[in-house]
Amino acid sequence: MKILLTGNMGYIGPCVEKQLLSAMPGVELVGLDLGYFAHCLTHAHVLPETRISSQFFMDVRSIPDEIFAGVDTVIHLAAISNDPMGNFFEEPTVAINADATERVALAAKKAGVKNFVYASSCSMYGSSGSEARTEEAELNPLTAYARSKVFSEEVISRLADDNFIVTSLRFATACGMSERLRLDLVLNDFVAGAVVDKKVTILSDGTPWRPLITTTDMARAIEWAAVRPLDNGGSFVAVNVGSDAWNYQVKDLAESVADVIGGVDVSINSDAAPDKRSYSVDFSRFAKLAPDHQPVSTLEGTIKELYEGLCAMNFQESNFRDTWYMRLKVLREHVESGRLNAQLSWNK
């Protein structure tokens, strides 16, 4: 079996590579990435990409058709991957997240790819409070990033048929360790603050709802989708990926970090403007379709893993929100240095 994994040199990619190589002995795993964050390694003993069969350094906006030759499954992770980056780089976000996704899916179908797995997001629900949103709920994307996910899902759903099985994984907010760790994610941010300052700082009033999923549980879901048969969900399925037990208010996450690590203060910005990005999600469809690939992580275990991972890195960056652990910071430095142009293409 041959799998093409786009965007594999980011936060999630190394975890997906490990999962697929472990679960699918003999798989030919091919990576494709432009390398924005290739250097952002954290506690990695080897370059993660040395584990896979081959690696292309390539822009998803201009992939030649021959890359898809002989590919059975495309797993499309490549994207400008959060709200701050999408808002700052809105034009290239549309080009990379939306337009390029359409072209990748079209090329994959033309080449005879059987399964197309799209990494989508529960952020499409926008603002729904504590009412758990099912896949049939109205979408309310509030940011460029979320809008790009809505557009892409609509496009790829129309391409699906009995010979091109498309799965859109609407992931909860990612968290957990990775060989390219990000700290611009709510739980990861809280643990980092607890490690360096013995303090968790909530930038909002703490009331927004966030469903969470760990990197390892995301990889398990991707494994399921990579070989999903037609009779398990049909030619196209959009599915919320996470666990009902992992719907949390932000303030509860902060308190959990303080309880698990100990000796940590929690600071809530009670004067903060309301964060409209608040949504609770129903994951029952995922539980029905993928009973053997359900999340197995616990919140306590994830906090401990992050804490131990950061300590093993001798993490001491008290100003981590202004460092390369934040993906927007990396992209801005690439642009300001002249390495990337305004459209986020490498300058030659």
Overall CATH class of the domain at 2-181 and 211-245 and 278-296 and 332-336:
Alpha Beta
Unreliable runs: none
Shape field: globular
CATH topology of the domain at 2-181 and 211-245 and 278-296 and 332-336: Rossmann fold
Q: What's the arrangement of strands in the largest beta sheet? A: 3-2-1-4-5-7-11
The helix fraction, in percent, is 25-40%
Largest sheet: 7 strands, parallel
Report the average pLDDT across residues. 95
CATH architecture of the domain at 2-181 and 211-245 and 278-296 and 332-336: 3-Layer(aba) Sandwich
Characteristics:
single chain; 348 residues; alpha/beta; Rossmann fold; seven-stranded parallel sheet; three-stranded mixed sheet; 10 helices; globular
What does this 3D model show about the protein?
It is built from 10 helices and 14 strands. It has a domain at 2-181 and 211-245 and 278-296 and 332-336: NAD(P)-binding Rossmann-like Domain (Rossmann fold, 3-Layer(aba) Sandwich). The two termini are 35 Å apart. The chain has 348 residues and is α/β, with parallel strands linked by helices. Helix 1 (13-23) links the parallel strand 1 (2-6) and strand 2 (28-33). A 7-stranded parallel beta sheet has the order 3-2-1-4-5-7-11, with helices on both faces. Strands 8-10-12 form a 3-stranded mixed beta sheet. Helix 1 (13-23) packs across helix 6 (215-226).
